[in-house]
Amino acid sequence: MDDSFFKDGFASDGILNVTPRQAYSYCQKGVLLIDVREEYMNRYKTMDVPEVIYCPFSILEETYENLPKDKPMIFADAAGLHSKEAVRFLIDKGFGDHIANMAGGLIEWERDELPLIIDKTEKLSGSCMCQLRPRNKKD
User: Rounded CA gap, 18 and 109, in Å?
Assistant: First the structure.
């Protein structure tokens, strides 16, 4: 991995943030995407990149040691809020030199018309673009 990963993006509160377009480009070059959305949220729309690990934010504290320490990672969620907290947590655990937050999350990824995998049987409902609740299924 070349050093450009550490030069792109912008810093906020000591955290490196990258845009969805930058994240997509890095993922095409071998950077790992870590999706911290809860399981019910990542079944409908997923970011179509070569390598994704699903690690819900709610269990990150118990599972973070399973993440690779030798590979650059970009953390993403629906809007970039939980992923930013995940990055902050991991910086405190010694992961700071090769991780970034994807600012804007899936909402901005979709706005930028980046590739998605959509499972229409898992559609969510809610009042915001990230559609927070599983849709009530009719029998």
Answer: 11
pTM (two decimals): 0.83
Secondary structure class of 43 (helix, strand, coil): coil
Torsions phi, psi for 54 (to 5 deg): -95, 115
Question: One digit per residue, pLDDT tens: the chain, 139 residues?
Answer: 344 455 688 888 889 999 999 999 999 999 999 999 998 777 788 999 999 999 999 999 999 999 998 899 999 999 989 999 999 999 999 987 789 999 999 999 999 999 998 877 777 666 554 544 444 444 4
d(CA 123, CA 133): 9
How far is the C-alpha of 5 from the C-alpha of 14, rounded, in Å?
16
Strand partners, 92: none
Of residues 124, 82, 118, 119, the one with CA closest to residue 103: 82
Pairing of strands 32-35, 45-47: unpaired
